[in-house]
Backbone:
């Protein structure tokens, strides 16, 4: 998680348990799931889902000030999982921390 100046403020490690086709988000993607826990992978246009009850699905923001931040998420950062194109493994999401009880 980076602050408004781009400085890294928090770091987390999301641990995957099983990489598979869970939901289809692109209408042009294949209709049927191809990958499972036995044959792991994710097709183009499909996504995987890890709910909050699984360990490692969070980042500790204790002590962070209210304000704008950017979550930077990278899949397979060391290239361990074989892929055709690694250039699309990084995404960013803007977030705002606003705790009404703690105004700073």
Residues:
């Amino acid at each position: 998680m980076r602050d408004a100046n781009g400085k890294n403020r928090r770091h987390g490690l999301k641990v995957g348990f099983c990489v598979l086709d869970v939901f289809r988000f692109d209408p042009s993607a294949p209709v049927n799931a191809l990958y499972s826990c036995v044959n792991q992978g994710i097709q183009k246009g499909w996504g995987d889902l890890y709910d909050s009850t699984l360990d490692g699905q969070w980042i500790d923001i204790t002590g962070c000030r209210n304000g704008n931040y950017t979550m930077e998420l990278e899949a397979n950062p060391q290239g361990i999982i074989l892929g055709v194109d690694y250039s699309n493994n990084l995404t960013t999401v803007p977030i705002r921390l606003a705790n009404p009880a703690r105004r700073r």
The mean pLDDT is 85. The chain is about 0% helix and 20% strand. The first strand starts at residue 2 and ends at 3.
